[in-house]
Amino acid sequence: MREFKGQTLSWGWKDAVIELILHRAPGNEIGSVTLEELEKFAAVLDDLSRESHALIMHSSVPAGFCAGADLRELFERSQQMKREEAIRSVRDFLERIHAVFNKIDASPLTTIAAVHGVTFGGGFELALICDLIVADKMTRFCFPELRLGLIPGFGGIPRLKRDLGNAVVRDLLLTGRSFNATKAQQIGLVSQLVAEGEALRAARATAVQMGKFDRRTSAAAKQFVKPIPHEELCREIDIFCDLFAQPAVEAGLRKFVESTDALPYLP
Questions:
Q1: Phi, psi (5° rounding) for residue 87?
Q2: Neighbours of 248 (CB within 10 A)
């Protein structure tokens, strides 16, 4: 299936490049529907990869690439369940999204996230599964989960440690502050920094350049330099679920849901 248009995302294929487009307003929040559509994409990725050399992820939503998990859905679903049932539901969601992210992370394709604006929480984690991040100058990266009493749960900590090291993880995770695109490039998170609105164009140009190389060589190089940190990813899910059971998380989610402040939820 070379083309798909869903409620929250779409994908298409042209000139051996796959493009996955997020289009759920206001901020591409990742909830149950987005997860189901990501699973559909993961299911056809092997077939698409046979005729492709690159994958580009981007957003058509003005606010940014992705504001993270759908916290409203998470809160409302948890309120309808007993605590033990809610924790099982959260674990199931995390295991499913880890499976999708790991599938894309391990793909033999060269993957590029073309990001702009808000790239927070789960959206930041989605960008981190890609081999390269191309960001326009208005992009901001953040793990705001700490203020909810949580840690990132979509694999962000192990992947950021893999790519940049523990010092950057501690800064983002423990302070909850955001990085602008310039800072992100300085620390090695962003491979290309471009003018506002130019991330997708730059990503497409990069994908064209990649098409000049032997696919088997690129895939072998990627497998060598980008191992999947499976053990740490499993441990992250355990820690997230342990924290989710604490009263501070329910209070933090309730505060977020009932807030009248402008969204997305900026630090």
A1: -65, -40
A2: 11
12 Ramachandran zone, left/alpha/beta (phi>0; psi -120 to 50): beta
Tell me how far apart the alpha carbons of residues 67 and 24 are, in angstroms, rounded to a whole number: 11
* Architecture field, domain 4-258: Alpha-Beta Complex (3.90)
The residue among 128, 95, 107, 109 whose CA lies nearest residue 240 is: 95
Q: What's the CA angle centered on 168, arms 144 and 256, to 5 degrees?
A: 0
**126-178 confidence digits (pLDDT tens):** 999 999 999 999 999 999 988 889 999 999 999 999 999 888 889 888 888 88
CB 67 within 8 Å of CB 27 = yes
Q: How far apart are CA 203 and CA 205, in angstroms?
A: 5
Peptide bond into 26 cis (omega under 30): yes
In this prediction, residues 231-255 reach a mean pLDDT of 93
Q: What angle do CA 86, 80, 240 make, to 5 degrees?
A: 25
Give me the torsion for CA of 93, 99, 102, 104, rounded to 10°. Answer: -100
Cis amide leading into 158 (omega within 30) = no
Answer yes or no: are the C-beta atoms of 30 and 97 closer than 8 Å.
Answer: yes
Buried/exposed code over 189-226 (b: 16+ C-beta within 10 A; e: otherwise): bbbbbbeeebbbebbbebbeebbeeebeebbeebeeee
Q: Could you give the 3-state DSSP secondary structure of residue 132? A: strand
Q: What is the DSSP letter of 129?
A: T
**pTM of the complete model:** 0.95
